[in-house]
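Anyone opening a protein record will find just a pair of labelled lines. With that in mind, the following record should read easily:
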Amino acid sequence: EVYRSASVCDYYTPDLCGLTPQQGVQEIFKKSTDAAELAYIWRSWRDQTRGIRKSYRRYMDLANLAAHTNNLVNKVELELGEYGGGGFRQDLQEAWQQLRPLYLQLHAYTRRKLRQVYGPQVVTERGPLPAHLLGDLWAQQWKVWDLIIPFPGKTNPNVTLEMKRQ
C-alpha cells in the first residue's frame, strides 16, 4: 500500500503531482539526463515511501520467527534452503570472486562515462555510482547504455555464430 499510494510532483512543473513509477516516474528515469531532476525525483520517492521501513521490520521479524519455528537461524537460512542449502552460499561466494574483477572494471568504466556526462560535481572519481543516475528508480538495472556505449554509432556484432563455433 505504501508503494502503491505514493506519488511525487514533477521537477519542472511542481503543480503537476501524482507521478508514480507506473505513471511518469520511470519514464523520467528512462529519458532524462538532468542530474538535478533525477535527484529530486529519486529523493522525493524515497521521502514518500519511507513509511515502509516500519512494515518491513515487522515482516523481517515474522520471517525470522518462521525460520526459528523450522529450527533455522533466520530468514536467510530459510531462503538458502530453496537454493539447495548451505552449499549455495559457498558457490555464490566463489562465483562472486570470479566475477568481481570484471564487475569492478565495469563499475569504473560506467563511473568514468557518467562523470563525463554529468561532471565531477555530480559523479566522484572514486566511490559508488549515484543511484539516481542509473536509469532506474531502484538502481537495480543500469539503464544507461546510451550514455556509456563504448563505440557509439557502431553496430553491435552478432556473436552467436562464433559462440556456437567455439
About this structure: The chain is about 55% helix and 0% strand. The CA atoms of residues 8 and 41 lie 7 Å apart. The chain has a mean pLDDT of 92.
